Structures are given as structure tokens and as C-alpha cells.
């Protein structure tokens, strides 16, 4: 199979965290989300565990409940972080936090909230190797899901702040005790698809060969 490398590179390089450009008025068909999850389920997992589970929330009352928890966890932090970025003249980071605040204010309006989960919870004080294997068995699938969304004209952003109130969210969603939430992705069609590459440091400044 010969891949279209330029197109693949463009997909990888321009799949951004989308917040303000989410279309809050256009419904997202369930079958499109299931297509993306079917692709995400092809991602590798540690020990072939395949322990990912997905909770898709399109009910307005459920979304409002999650949004309340998200705001309770995020508002003060995002405001302070944005102000700190502005104080040091970091315009890009200031824009990111401004966008995150906008999302917090509008989260219940986003058509779908996707909660990726894992079946099984780590023990208290779990060693780094166990945690790396655990989360390494879900985030490849999350990224595949986000790429599949982008290819279909939808956007998302990986957020975790609602996990400050994980127990309340679990109760709201009716999750069993052995189900571990790992993120919340607001999902919707995007207003335009002309996303660009972000400013990043040269790879020579972040890469080490053989040892630090």
C-alpha cells in the first residue's frame, strides 16, 4: 500500500486542539462518531488488553452537568494561567488559555462530549511502569479518534480538568467503580477546515541522541 505522504503529514501536522471554532449548532450524527471509534479501536494496547471504553454524551442535561463540573474545576486555574502568560508576554499561550476559558463558558453547548475510559483502575501508589502501560493503552486510541474526526471535518480538544471531580462525573454518567475516566473531548464540526501548523521549537533543540 502506498500512502499519500503529503496528505498524511498534513493531517498529522494540522490536527489542532479546537475550541472556539467548534460549530455549536450543527448536530453530529452518531454513526460518524461510531466510525471514528471503530478506527480508534485499531490502536495498539499494552498486552493486547483492549480495555478502552467510550462514553458519548449528547443529552443536553448530561452535557450541562459535565460542564458545571468542568467550570468548577477550571475557571480559577485558567484565568490565573492566562494572566500569567500575558504578564510574561507569551501571546500564543495567552491565546490558548483564552480559548480554554471560552470552552469552559460554552461546554454544555458543544454537541457531543466524549469520555474515553479504561476498564480497571491502578492501585494506590502504582509504579511509573504500571501507569505508563495503563495510559499508554488508551491515549493512542484517543489520538486516532481525533485524527479520524479531523478527516471528517470535525474537531476536538483533549481536556482533563473535569477529573478534579471524577467521582461526581462518574455518578452523573452511571460509571461502575472499575471504570477509569482519562479525559473529556468536546466534539463538533468545525467552522472551516483551514487549520495550520503551530509554532514549535526546532527538533534539534528537543532531541538527544544516545544520551542526554
Describe the structure.
The chain has 212 residues and is of the alpha+beta class. It has a domain at 17-59 and 111-192: NADH Oxidase. 44% of the residues lie in helices and 11% in strands. The chain is built from 7 helices and 5 strands, in the order ααβααβααβαββ. The chain has helices spanning 5-14, 30-40, 60-87, 91-106, 128-135, 139-151, 166-173; strands at 52-57, 112-119, 154-155, 179-181, 185-189. Strands 1, 2, 3, 4 and 5 form a 5-stranded antiparallel beta sheet that branches. α2 packs across α6, α3 (60-87) runs antiparallel to α4 and α3 runs antiparallel to α7 (166-173). The protein is globular, with a radius of gyration of 18 Å. The chain starts with a helix and ends in a 23-residue tail after the last strand.
Brief summary:
It is built from seven helices and five strands; from the N terminus they run ααβααβααβαββ.
Features:
212 residues, 7 helices, NADH Oxidase, alpha+beta, 5-stranded antiparallel β-sheet, globular, 5 strands, 11% strand
